[in-house]
Each structure stands twice: as C-alpha cells, then as structure tokens.
Amino acid sequence: MYSRVDAAKRCLIAVLILLALAASPVMAGPADRLDLRYRVSWAGMPIAEIRLQHRQNERRYRSDVEVETIGLLDQLLSYRAQARATGDHRATDLVPKKYRNAYQSSRKSRRILIRFDPDSGDVVELEITKRGEPDRSKVPESLQKGVVDPLTAFFRLRQQAASAMAGGSGDGFAAAVFDGRRRYDLDAQLIGRERATVAGREWSVIKLELTLVWIAGSNQDDTDGAEAEADTFRLELLLSDDEQLIPLQLRTLGSIFTAKVELLPECAAPGGCPAISG
Questions:
Q1: Distance (Å, whole) CA 102 – CA 95
Q2: CA pair distance 205, 237, nearest whole angstrom
Q3: In this structure, are residues 254 and 234 in contact, taking their beta carbons and an 8 Å threshold?
Q4: 20-48 pLDDT per residue, tens
Q5: Containing domain of residue 101, as a range?
Q6: Is residue 272 situated within a structural domain?
Q7: Ramachandran region of residue 60, left (φ > 0), alpha (ψ -120 to 50) or beta?
Q8: Which of 18, 105, 225, 272 is the most core-located residue (most Cβ within 10 A)?
Q9: What is the DSSP track for 116-182?
Q10: Within 10 A of 191 (CB to CB), how many other CB atoms are there?
Q11: Can you give the pTM of this predicted structure?
C-alpha cells in the first residue's frame, strides 16, 4: 500500500511542477479575464483539484493557480499550494517581474518569492522559507539567468504553437524554467490537429508533446525522501483549436500509471466556469 501511495505522491508532484506550464492562462483572443478548474487523477483515481485565474490588460498580467489534494491522498498528504506570477504584457510576449509560491502539507510548509530583471530574465531577488525559517536554493546562481517562472513559461510556448499551426511549421519550442527550488528545461514538440473527447464533449484540439528535463536543484525532498523515479518527464498536452487555446488536458506518457489533468465538465459549457471571487 505504501509503495502505491508514494508513487501517487511522486506522480502528483510531477504534475504540479508541470501544471502551470500546461494550464497556463489563456492570452490569445479578446479574453482579459479567465477562470478555469481542473481535476487531477492518477491511475483513474481523483487526487487533486486545481483552480486557475487570469487577468490582463494591454500593459500587465496576473496569473494565479491554487491546488489542493482530495480523497485518500488528501487524508495522507493534505497538500495545499498557491502561486502567482505578475509582469508586463509587451506586444505578444509576457515578461515576468515577480513570482510567489506558497505550499503546505501535513509534514512541511514553504514560501518562495522571486523577482526578475524584466529585460534580462535574470533573478535579482530570491527568498525561500521552510517551516518559517530561511532556506536557500540548491540551484547555482549561474543557472538563475535568462529564466522564467512556471506560470509565465507556457504562454510563450503556447503562443508559438498558435503561430506554428497558422504557418504550418513543425518546429519545436523551448523554455528555461526556474521555480525557486528547481531549474528545468521544457521542450515542446507540435504534433498536429485532431479530434478528442475532453470533459464530456468533443473538441478540435492541437496536440503537443512536452518533455521536462531536470537540470539542478531539489528533486527529492518534496517526496519526503523517496527517490525520484526519473529526471525526465514526458507529457501530452491538448489545447482547444481556436483563438483562445484553452488547455484542455495534460497526461503523462511512458508511465505505468497515467496521471491526467483535465478540464472540469462545467468549464466546457459555452459560458465557461462559474467565476471565482477575488
């Protein structure tokens, strides 16, 4: 029983690392406010729920994500996380300025604050506290240059995916991501267009394959000492094939038990999710 639960925990951690990348706020088209909700499942068992919120205007953006475990995993782990990214909206690009992340579980808590130089992408301030005490990142400062936070990273890939589909290009996209504790590279390959059933309805989708490669930093202590299964994760991402490019589904590839993040059915209705206050 322990090994299955521990595997589920590792799976959830991998999904959470990628969640912001795959469920990034929708920036294409006219929408300047977005509320989305997702359910995370592992081996068919619901293990977490996610709430996404996005606000933007011509000059700035703010993206928020909240995660909480549910069911059996919540009884064992009781994981809660909140993250926010803010920055400048320049032409067709997002330029991060500040990223905050706070989480707690039954065993630990941590807060992270990162400030970026908006022109170079270098980290100019980094604060980490663990159980209320100052902590430090295991990522060398040399690897904290020219990076973006997880909540900002995917928009760049997503926007390039839209441009590639419009031009028929099959080129890949990449991002150097830093979340305060980990430095990893994200590579995205555009697979193409197809039809898929997500959240109880059929969609025209754009499919991408994502590869996340751990470069430096902590990759084990979030699993309470359990050995990480791999330093590379492969995932499949489905975006709605329209001007909004809504992240519909993310699932792991090459795993014995599949983890999946999927838009809730109520968010697939024409009116979208009920608004989240705040």
A1: 21
A2: 9
A3: yes
A4: 444 443 333 434 677 889 999 988 889 99
A5: 2-267
A6: no
A7: beta
A8: 18
A9: E-TTT--EEEEEEEETTEEE--SS-GGGSSS-B-HHHHHHHHHHHHHHHHHHT----EEEEEE-SSE
A10: 15
A11: 0.81
